[in-house]
Amino acid sequence: MVPRAVFVFLTVLLPALALAGGAAAQGSRIQLGQSLNLSERELEVTAEMLEVDQTSGASMFSGNVLVMQGEMRITAERLRIEYTPAAEGERQRIDRLVAEGGVTMVTPAEAVEGASAIYSLREQTLELRGDVVLVQGQNVLSGQHLQVNLRNGTGQISGRVRTIIQLD
What is the pLDDT along the chain (168 residues), one digit of tens a residue? Predict the structure, then answer.
């Protein structure tokens, strides 16, 4: 049986590396979260089950969750969508996505995985915890905690950080 981390690398992260290889060849500068920024477009969520909390209005998806938006794919075991309170007559907006259980986010330019993730649409921040791996082209960053400001592309990774940066 193939360990989960190896399986994810071979089936998700390695293809992302191949797709992003051309971008990496242009330079070794690392910009965090460039392509992980959710836009105003709709999210499509597929899961085994959906529960709605009538008190808070939050939605909890569980079981092989797949979120798609454009070319971005997010997978996890559980996903909670939290909404901002809406004024009367206004449409409710998504405030945060909270994902747990083998979280993977993949775009043509980047791939990131961790045990859990909190994505704040209002603040435009992404936080991953637990065996975090970020792949951008041929560059790889790993650690235990990743925080990214998606507005300006800055962030930090902590917890026994390991970095592989290609110089070619």
Answer: 434 444 444 344 444 434 333 333 333 344 555 556 666 678 899 999 999 988 888 999 999 999 998 888 999 999 999 988 777 878 778 889 999 999 999 988 889 999 999 999 888 899 999 999 999 888 899 999 999 888 888 889 999 999 888 786
C-beta separation of 92 from 86 below 8 A? yes
- Can you say how many angstroms the Cα of residue 48 is from the centroid of all Cα atoms in its chain? 20
pTM above 0.85, yes or no: no
Sign of CA dihedral 92, 94, 96, 101: positive
User: Reduced to 3 DSSP states, what percent helix, strand and coil does the chain have, rounded to the nearest 5?
Assistant: 15, 50, 35
∠ at Cα 101 (73, 10), nearest 5°? 55
Question: Exposure of 4 by Cβ count < 10 A (0-12 exposed, 13-18 middle, 19+ buried)?
Answer: exposed
Contact 64, 50 (CB under 8 A): no
Burial letters 23-47, b for 16+ CB under 10 A, else e: bbeeeeebebbebbbbeeeeeebeb
